[in-house]
Write a structure and sequence with these properties.
The chain contains twelve helices and nine strands. Helix 10 packs across helix 11. The protein folds into two domains: 300 residues, Rossmann fold (3-Layer(aba) Sandwich); 57 residues, no CATH class. With 393 residues, the chain is an alpha/beta fold. The protein is globular, with a radius of gyration of 22 Å.
């Protein structure tokens, strides 16, 4: 471990791969800062994209917000610098239970201050960057980037289709929550909105949403994107071609995904076999042993995301429904219906066939000359050619 830019960093070591540039040339590479949001589903996609950038000849400094009081999260890829910056939690009363809104505000204040301090540090100023690639859930850091003559590039971890709906909501093109029983209005030439109804929206944008802060957070991703030079999306053109093409005609969008380890895709980054970061302690060996003990096609994976924290009663209910026994808190039998559909019905077989198709298209997108590979090349080329940002926030 080294001390990079006044924080805890990882020593640079080139990823072994057939198309990786030699580390000796790194002084001539453009420099990109990558600022993630401190959540599992945000760290890993941005870390994977950082590996791709480095393999294309870009020096990457990965800024990871974390509590100063806790040991820094160790990231495995040695091809990039990692700098831990404060997430602002040191100012909070540890005994005080903060609301989601309060926590988000604390993060905003803490990240803004920490990023300012980092960009003013003598070590950073010896080798300043050209761009700040930042998680779209923290759009306020773009103002800091512009003040320091950096170009901005929000990184969207959600699909282009979902973000296009957030954009239309932000622009006021339909009510949030939408009127029950009515379809969503057709706005301009959006290729999909006319086919959607209120029930197709993310749950926190519907009636009875207990978390209005989440809707505000999601829609706020589009609050200042027009000040950014690029918009990076963790998707690939072939997955949602109509929406991506519509957005490209409106915005400087680049589809650069899927951001998963190279071993599952093009296999050009030989050492890129896992994500390299985990906020939890995965028991991989035990999981694989258990899975290997089951028959092929007999396991259903139910995902709730890393933010979810299910109580004992909820876990028992889900287990009972999947196991087809017991009475539960659900009045409809939706869980059993969905499991049966995926595991046993013709529709399930059709879905599995389509999954194989999308897997193959995802692999093609990141192979040499694929749609996402070309977009990453385009981003790096423009990064090399661009001059410091003349805009000042």
């Amino acid at each position: 471990m080294g001390d990079e830019f006044g924080g805890v960093g990882v020593e640079v070591e080139c990823v072994v791969g057939s198309f990786c540039k030699k580390e000796d040339d790194e002084e001539d590479w453009p420099h990109a800062l990558v600022l993630t949001c401190p959540a599992q589903g945000h760290i890993n996609p941005m870390l994977q994209f950082s590996k791709r950038l480095h393999s294309k000849g870009t020096k990457v400094t990965f800024l990871l917000p974390s509590p100063p009081s806790k040991p820094p999260l160790r990231l495995h890829p040695s091809s990039i610098h990692v700098v831990h910056i404060s997430d602002g939690s040191e100012v909070a009363d540890q005994d005080e239970e903060l609301s989601l809104e309060d926590n988000l505000e604390r993060l905003r204040v803490g990240l803004t201050r920490s990023l300012e301090e980092f960009l003013d540090s003598p070590a950073y100023l010896e080798r300043p960057a050209k761009v700040l690639i930042y998680d779209s859930f923290v759009p306020y850091v773009l103002d800091v980037a512009l003040r320091h003559r950096l170009h901005g590039a929000p990184f969207f971890t959600q699909s282009a289709a979902v973000c296009s709906i957030y954009y239309l909501a932000h622009a006021g093109n339909f009510r949030i929550p939408p009127v029950a029983g009515a379809g969503l209005p057709v706005v301009g030439d959006h290729p999909e909105l006319s086919m959607l109804g209120p029930g197709d929206l993310p749950s926190f944008m519907s009636d009875g949403n207990p978390y209005p802060e989440l809707a505000k957070l999601a829609i706020g991703q589009l609050s200042n994107f027009r000040e950014a030079r690029w918009m990076l999306f963790n998707t690939f053109v072939e997955l949602e071609e109509e929406v991506v093409n519509w957005m490209v005609s409106e915005w400087p969008l680049l589809a650069i995904g899927p951001t998963v380890p190279s071993m599952y895709l093009d296999k050009r980054l030989k050492d890129d076999k896992d994500y390299g970061a985990s906020l939890f302690e995965p028991e991989v060996e035990d999981y694989m042993k258990w899975l290997d003990s089951k028959e092929t096609g007999s396991v259903a994976y139910v995902s709730f995301g890393s933010f979810a924290s299910l109580g004992e009663e909820q876990m028992e209910e889900i287990g009972a429904r999947i196991g087809r026994n017991g009475r539960g808190i659900f009045t409809a039998d939706e869980i059993t219906k969905c499991i049966d559909e995926i595991m046993f019905d013709d529709r399930g077989r059709e879905i599995r066939q389509r999954s194989t198709k999308w897997k193959e298209l995802a692999q093609m997108a990141l192979r040499e000359g694929g749609s996402s590979d070309r977009n990453i090349d385009k981003f790096v080329k423009e990064l090399v050619e661009c001059t410091p940002n003349s805009k000042l926030s």
